[in-house]
Amino acid sequence: MTDGADVASSPTTPDRLDRIWTIPNALSALRLLGVPLFLYWVLVTEQDGRAILLLMAAGASDYLDGKIARKFGQFSRLGQLLDPAADRLYIAATLVALVARDGLPLWWAVVLVGRDVALVPTLPLLRRHGYGPLPVHFLGKAATFNLLYAFPMLLAALPSRSDTLATVFRPLGWAFATWGSVLYVWAGILYVVQVRQLVVADRAAPWQAGAPA
């Protein structure tokens, strides 16, 4: 899915936004279906190679569905829900896997999951004022890309591994994870700020409408 600027500038009509059967939506749905398979491979069978390939494919499809949506104007309301849902599920699933395999401190995972939990109350608040979920900000997409780059590297560099790939990927994985985590939390703060601005403006509108010219 694209960021808010892309959605706002795209020549889409309400009818087109109601579409379900689009290529970006299909890619997002496939990403969602891959989450339980990823968890099975990394936690049950410990087939890390397959899990890493699936995670990389999920990251590539996340990039592709945005490109396709922009190029062919295939934006939709369903896509606005599916795309961030798939991103957050993969992030949560990978955090669970990394913590379970001692590849990431628990507190780090709690911070990232806590960011999403903190945003949950904004949905009914927006709905109460007549708004749906806000479009994904570019900063949020950048954070997700950094994390989706970091996670395969961290899985390939688990503490139990000491091969050449682990040695190479360990510093790179932590670098992407650090930058992505900072951006992820920052994007969450900006989201709350945007929600607050909308709510304040909505509450001020009746007073402005009744004010004398």
Explain what you see:
The protein is mainly α and 213 residues long. It has one domain: Four Helix Bundle (Hemerythrin (Met), subunit A) (Up-down Bundle). 79% of the residues lie in helices and 0% in strands. The protein contains nine helices and no strands. The longest helix has 47 residues.
Task: Provide a compact summary of the structure.
The protein is an all-alpha fold and about 210 residues long.
Name some characteristics of this structure.
single chain; 213 residues; mainly alpha; Four Helix Bundle (Hemerythrin (Met), subunit A); globular
The geometry reads as globular
Q: Would you tell me which CATH topology applies? A: Four Helix Bundle (Hemerythrin (Met), subunit A)
Compute the gyration radius: what is it? 19 Å
Number of domains: 1
Total helices: the number is 9
Question: What fraction of residues sit in β-strands?
Answer: under 5%
Secondary-structure class:
mainly alpha
The average pLDDT value, as a whole number, equals 82
**Ends distance:** 42 Å
Q: Could you say what the CATH architecture is?
A: Up-down Bundle
Please give the largest β-sheet. none
CATH class descriptor: Mainly Alpha
